[in-house]
Design a protein that fits this description.
161 residues, mainly alpha, 6 helices, 73% helix, 4% strand
Amino acid sequence: MLKDESPVEANQNYLRIGKAAEVTGVTKRALRYYEEKGLLPPPSRLEGGFRLYSPEDIERIIRIRETQELLGFSLVDIKEMLAAEDVKTEIRANWIKNADAAAKATAVGTAREVTLSQIALIEQKLTKMEEMHTHLAERLSRYDELLRAYSEELSKKAIRR
C-alpha cells in the first residue's frame, strides 16, 4: 500500500522507478534529477521508500523528454513550459460553470498570459533554429561553389592531357 494513501488509491496503475524509466525512455537517474529540479512532483512512495509514478507522472515525463528532444529545450525551459501547463490545468480543474463573468475573465486572462509565455519561449527557439539553418545553408552554398570550381579545374586538366 502507498504511504499515507487508502487501499483504493494504492491499486491505481503506479509504476516503480525502473519500469517508469523503461516505459518513458529515460534513465532512473534522470527521473530523480527531474524530481530534484522540480520538473516532477515528488512521487508517491511505498512504505519502504520506493518511488511510484502515477499515469499522470508518466505523461509528464514523456512531455519532458519530447520537449527536450524535439525542441531542444533546456530543463529550465521545460520547467517553465510545464509550470504554464500546470496553471492551465488548475484553471480547468477549478472552473465554475456558474461563476460570474469577472471570475471567468480573470481565469481566461491568466491562461492567456501563461500561453503567451510558452509561445515566446518557442519563438526564441525557432529564431535560433532559423539562424542555425541559415548559417548551415550558407555553408552548404559555399561548399557547392567550391565543388563546382574544383570540378571545372579538374575538367580543364583532363582536357589538357
